[in-house]
Specification:
Length: 758
């Protein structure tokens, strides 16, 4: 059973969202769409992620007509211009939508009346006796008015009949007869009829006025009862879900402890197989992401693979991705071991900051910038800090380590193929921080550094240095006590294509594990910033990554699908296949780069028949998918703090003992973080001009040292302080590698060799 997320029960005045099936045409039939009901408007999108930028259609409920066809289907029409044929997943879900639509319809039609009524307070639920007395008094008053109306009605019938008889008698009088008496009789009876009619009109007016005065209160009382019913339904839903989870937890608790570790793994596999049909966990299913990728499709494996014996499970558990139990046991044993460094460490861990000053709302006049740039070289144009975020590119590189736990887990894997899955998930996780980060990081000055010392908290240390200015290149080195080393050298190339900006990172990333000597390398994909000129900025990642294990020949091919208006896939989708040196597939990865990744072991593969496009696809039979990575939630108030993650908030926090060239000491970046943008712009221009003067002086010295100007090297003669350029034997890449000495210099505090760049 697919565990579709439950839609919340509708409440008046709130936004109601959920999945519905919408009829498109006779070829495609009903298609799944994300509907949003808000402010009397019903809008729909292809996926939830499109809510920020692409609405597929909207209908105004103020003039709409809602027709229920059967248990799940209903139709919304606004008189012929727009008609939505919709289908819910169940009758309960359909009724929820009908209730929400009716509430929105009533709220929209009655909003003007409620405003004219003034502050009429609804009866409170806490005073049931007072409400009952009020209703009884109102009913008695209305009853007396109805009796008055009945009396007036009887009098009107009586006097009307008498007037009608008098008029008939008057018509039957012969010409020349005396009509004076008859006329007086008609006049008297007409007067009585008029008086009775006036009394009837007055009684009707009183009744109508009284009914109008109380109708709003009754509507609010009825709405209050509806709210109470809605809250009761939600409470019952939550209790049912909790009951279901408790039952599953109880079953798991009674099975697992009674068996040994191997049998426990087997039991876990059996339970997970059963969970395919019974679990209600909302996080188990990618609805739109499970549509068929271009190269392959996945189907559940034969149940026989879930019913292996305990010994068989232990025989291949090192390769099946069921290492979480062993990883947790290792961490527990390390925490309780007397030789563990955590047990010997008595000093408290430093508390890092969790907020920075809010981003100011400064007005930016683009023309005031562009008019001063006409005729200037593009590299000489001073860009204001209004386009930046208060972090440098070196700090953004260090953010790749936010999910360092993936590499910690990878270092404990016995199987190189499973280790590849964790490394691949780590490569995807580095993009999760970019989804809302449309600000440009500060370009590092030549020789600028940034250290990230998390040895006590997380077990790793990281160092970045800007090793080249033309072209700009940054080198990064990180090592962990858990047995892994990460290094990379990134050079950015960008192309402005009118409506969007493409950023192509050049250079390689490498990760080495000391225990297995596995050596991985990969490159980054293209980042695209859309709506550069007009509209809201948004970021997309697209391209392909090949993660290669140079020792074993294992490979993981990851594909980042670009966003397309016509695509049926979920946005930001990532898929991948892990293969060995012979090309045999062992694992499938799927998910999105901004939310989570899952991986599942392939039990069998086959070729499908040619599809509509004539391409033959590979069909993988897999075990149940297992979550390998999930994005950490952003801190509270992140939208006012440049959408920084919890790690990013700490990167520019001042620290004692760092190098004089550290990004934390950069004055323009510090001024921008503090909200002094005008001063930051002036300081930024000063630093850039100082860097140009130093570079010109360095070029003059190189020319003087040469015999002739032709012998002078054309490239910049700057030598990095903490990195040196080498050729990697395994990957064949040329990159800057950390040569040591930084952390020893920090311990001694002797920074005399550092240049004065700030």
């Amino acid at each position: 059973m697919s565990s579709e997320p439950k839609s919340p029960t509708p409440t008046p005045g709130d936004t109601y969202k959920g999945w519905l099936f919408k009829w498109t045409n006779y070829i495609k039939g009903y298609q799944r769409r994300w509907f949003v009901l808000s402010n009397g408007l019903l809008s729909y999108y292809r996926t939830q992620a499109e809510m920020g930028h692409t609405c597929r259609g909207t209908i105004n409920l103020a003039t709409a007509n809602i027709v229920v066809e059967d248990s799940c289907n209903f139709v919304i029409s606004n008189g012929g211009a727009q008609t939505y044929h919709l289908k819910a997943s169940s009758e309960v879900e359909r009724q929820r939508w009908i209730t929400a639509l009716e509430l929105a319809f009533d709220t929209g039609n009655n909003s003007d009346d409620s405003c004219e009524d003034g502050p009429s307070a609804p009866p409170t639920s806490g005073h049931g006796g007072g409400r009952t007395l009020d209703i009884q008094s109102t009913l008695r008053t209305l009853g007396s008015k109805v009796e008055d109306l009945d009396t007036c009605n009887d009098l009107i019938v009586k006097h009307g009949s008498a007037l009608q008889r008098s008029l008939s008698e008057l018509e039957g009088i012969q010409p020349g007869a005396d009509v004076g008496d008859k006329m007086r009789q008609v006049t008297e009876r007409a007067t009585l009829f008029r008086i009775t009619s006036n009394a009837m009109i007055n009684a009707c007016r009183d009744f109508l006025s009284l009914a109008q005065n109380h109708s709003k209160r009754w509507q609010k009382a009825l709405q209050l009862e509806r709210d109470q019913r809605v809250r009761l339904e939600e409470t019952l839903e939550q209790l049912a879900k909790q009951h279901n989870h408790l039952e599953r937890a109880f079953r798991g608790a009674t099975v697992l402890p009674s068996s040994n570790s191997n049998a426990a793994l087997g039991s876990k596999g059996a339970l997970s197989g059963k969970g395919d049909s019974s679990d209600e966990d909302d996080n188990n299913v990618f609805f739109d992401a499970m549509e068929e990728p271009a190269e392959f499709i996945t189907v559940p494996a034969d149940p026989k693979y879930h019913r292996r014996s305990g010994s068989n499970v232990s025989g291949f558990s090192n390769e099946t991705g069921m290492d979480d139990l062993s990883v947790n046991f290792d961490e527990l044993s390390m925490a309780s071991s007397p030789e563990s460094p955590q047990s010997l460490e008595l000093e408290p861990v430093r508390q890092r900051r969790s907020r920075i000053p809010d981003k100011p709302n400064y007005y930016l006049n683009l023309w005031s910038i562009m008019k001063n740039c006409i005729g200037k070289e593009l590299s000489k144009i001073p860009m204001p800090v209004n386009f930046n975020e208060p972090l440098s590119m070196l700090q953004r590189l260090s953010e790749d380590l936010e999910y360092y736990e993936l590499l910690d887990k990878a270092s404990k894997c016995q199987s190189s193929l499973e280790q590849m899955c964790y490394v691949a998930a780590f490569t995807v996780s580095s993009y999760s921080t970019t989804v809302h980060r449309t600000g440009k990081p500060f370009n590092p000055l030549l020789g600028e550094t940034f250290e990230l010392d998390r040895l006590r908290e997380c077990g790793y240390r990281s160092l970045c240095e800007q090793v080249s200015h033309h072209p700009p290149a940054a080198a990064h080195h990180a090592f962990s006590e858990k047995g892994w080393t990460l290094r990379q050298e990134i050079t950015l190339a960008s192309k402005f294509r009118g409506k969007y900006l493409s950023i192509m990172p050049l250079g390689a990333i490498q990760c080495m594990f000391a225990k297995s000597n596995n050596h991985y390398s990969w490159k980054k994909v293209t980042t695209t910033v859309h709506n550069i000129i007009v509209g809201k900025l948004w970021i997309d990642q697209s391209g392909e990554i090949d993660v290669v294990n140079h020792k074993t020949g294992d490979r993981c091919h990851l594909k980042f699908a670009p966003y397309s208006y016509f695509s049926r896939d979920v946005p930001r989708k990532v898929t991948g296949v892990v293969t060995d040196k012979d090309g045999k597939a062992h694992y499938v990865l799927s998910g999105t780069w901004d939310e989570k990744m899952e991986f599942s072991r392939i039990m069998q593969s086959s070729k499908s028949e040619n599809g509509a496009e004539g391409k033959q696809r590979t069909v993988y039979q897999t075990l149940k998918a297992k979550e390998i990575w999930r994005k950490n939630p952003l801190p509270e108030g992140a939208e006012t703090m440049y959408f920084f993650s919890s790690l990013a908030l700490t990167l520019n926090e001042p620290e004692e003992g760092v190098a004089p060239t550290d990004s934390r000491r950069r004055p323009d970046q510090r001024l921008m973080e503090d909200g002094h943008w005008d001063e930051a712009n002036a300081e930024k221009q000063r630093l850039e001009e100082k860097q140009r003067m130093v570079r010109r002086e360095r070029e003059r010295e190189v020319i003087k040292a040469a015999q002739t100007p032709d012998e002078a090297p054309h490239q910049d003669s700057h030598q990095a302080l903490w990195f040196e350029k080498t050729d990697d034997a395994q990957s064949g890449e040329t990159l800057h590698v950390y040569k040591g000495g930084y952390w020893e210099t920090k311990d001694s505090g002797a920074w005399d060799m550092c240049p004065d760049i700030f």
